[in-house]
Amino acid sequence: MCGIVGYIGNQDTKEILLKGLEKLEYRGYDSAGIAIQNADGVHVFKEKGRILDLRSIVDESCKANTGIGHTRWATHGVPSHENAHPHQSTSGRFTMVHNGVIENYSHLKREFLKDVSFKSDTDTEVIVQLIEKLVNEGNKVEDAFSQALKLLKGSYAIALIDAENEETIFVAKNKSPLLVGLGTDFNVVASDAMAMLQVTDQFLELMDKEIVIVTKESVTIQNLEGEVVSRDPFTAELDASDIEKGTYPHYMLKEIDEQPLVIRKIVQAYQDDQGKMSIDQDIVDAMNDTDRVYIVACGTSYHAGLVGKQFIEKMANIPVEVHVASEFSYNMPLLSQNPLFIFISQSGETADSRAVLVRVKELGHKAITITNVPGSTLSRESDYTLLLHAGPEIAVASTKAYTAQLAVLAIFASVTAESLGRDISLDIIQELGIVANAMEVLCGTKEEMEQIARDYLATTRNCFFIGRSIDFFVGLEGALKLKEISYIQAEGFAGGELKHGTIALIEEGTPIIALATQESVNLGIRGNVKEVVARGANPCIISMKGLEEEEDRFVIPEVSPMLTPLISVIPLQLISYYAALHRDCDVDKPRNLAKSVTVE
Ligand code: F6R
């Protein structure tokens, strides 16, 4: 949430910053700003709205060699010009961008900054004012920076410039992602490598509470004790085309279409030299040692966890609980003797999940993270990582990461089952190949999906998704997809549950999307459809080949019953996409949301 960039060098600073912010816009998009610095001083341009709005107010003729920029997802204070970053100290000497949440900002204001008149409602302004105060008290800027950071409680990624020093960007992070990128005669700062791939693919990872001094020629990292730390850069393994839309109108549609390829990549990545599925032996051992698995995740990743529980329990016969991360600390279950935690997170940065991970590590338990982002916070702080290999997911609504999570969980469960000597009678490589082919077929049904969106969702206020057994979990994901991008009130229910209350909401024409992919519950779900039809609902039944009936609106190809969530979700993703499109919604950047939710 929120994206930061910084540049120091001889190229067109303002353009590099703006291009970088465009790449980070998925992290937050309610306001944006840049500060660029030249011999005349620091020039701040900021605006409520998107990067496009910011571009329109930036003075084209303003040349500079140093600059910082920010795209915001509001936490403290409404989206407005005043609350947009960068923020400046009273004298204008210091200018800062910040991602994260400073929990003790009110206390710091009261304790140290009583006489300061604040221009914004943000926690960020407190930090920049604090630095100015410490400098006014006689501290060198570097010392003031580090002293101020020591007073902060919470999360931050920060870039600071000083009007009296055109040669330096001061950088630090704690619990929020931030990287420094390296170039010849320039260096950069970014929340995500993809923002600066335009100028470099060499990056330095930063650790929490380090202080980093970035100049055109050098990057100096200091640890908490003030000692200089040396660190090797890594090459960002991102292809610039991975982060472009290409000919697609939206990232979401591109990412939906990428799903068959992602599944094939995952199969390749987890195959050993003998062509068998394989995962790190330490992870297999951890699974063999545990008596209960606790899956912790949020949103779409939580929905993947619900399906993952079925995979692990049915294949490996290990009990699994699935928990929403944001509730875990309050409703912490009684843990088993040898618990093993699995965190599922596309971004690997989700603050709610990380808070649980920190607690789990304090308790001395082992944790695996399943993530799309190598080197992300959750990955670094867990004992083991399983990567999704889905490539960057940029649309806020998660699609390919969800199916990648399911594929990795299926492989993980099958490898664990094999290590425990269980015969699952499922050739997972072959079955995932069938899944990838079925996905391709489904990605070719866009016109039909667009028609379904028109027929059922063009004007409706609400929509219910029902399913039984594993279809129920896919229904939850379908409902989340639809509501987050089309703003139609959509809810997923277990087929049998509707009559216990929610059926009261069914009116003439209420759309009900029912999934019928499981033979074992086929009669049950069809009975539920009859109940809602009797009350005026407009049913859209999506069934699987072999189970179809005349009344069905769409039939998905046949795959192994356990793996149906990987494909039955695709029609739901596409229907949501077209519903949002028809309602003129901003598909890739839905209101109030942001990718990578780094606040609790
Ligand atoms: C919905 C969506 C969110 C995320 C959730 C967790 O389309 O993307 O619900 O799934 O914010 O994010 P990660 O997986 O990055 O932890």
UniProtKB/TrEMBL annotation:
Keyword Repeat: yes
EC number(s) given by UniProt: 2.6.1.16
GO molecular function: glutamine-fructose-6-phosphate transaminase (isomerizing) activity
InterPro entries: GATase_2_dom (IPR017932), GFAT (IPR005855), GFAT_N (IPR047084), GlmS/AgaS_SIS (IPR035466), GlmS/FrlB_SIS (IPR035490), Ntn_hydrolases_N (IPR029055), SIS_dom (IPR001347), SIS_dom_sf (IPR046348)
Active site: 2 (nucleophile), 595 (for fru-6p isomerization activity)
Localization of this protein: Cytoplasm
Keyword ATP-binding: no
Main subcellular localisation: cytoplasm
Residue ranges occupied by any SIS domain in the UniProt entry: 283-422, 452-590
Pfam families named in the record: GATase_6, SIS
Catalytic reaction list: D-fructose 6-phosphate + L-glutamine = D-glucosamine 6-phosphate + L-glutamate
All copies of domain Glutamine amidotransferase type-2, residue ranges: 2-217
PANTHER family in the record: GLUCOSAMINE--FRUCTOSE-6-PHOSPHATE AMINOTRANSFERASE, ISOMERIZING, GLUTAMINE--FRUCTOSE-6-PHOSPHATE TRANSAMINASE (ISOMERIZING)
Function statement: Catalyzes the first step in hexosamine metabolism, converting fructose-6P into glucosamine-6P using glutamine as a nitrogen source.
Quaternary data: Homodimer.
Protein name (record): Glutamine--fructose-6-phosphate aminotransferase [isomerizing]
Classification lineage: Bacteria, Bacillati, Bacillota, Bacilli, Bacillales
Gene transcribed to yield this protein: glmS
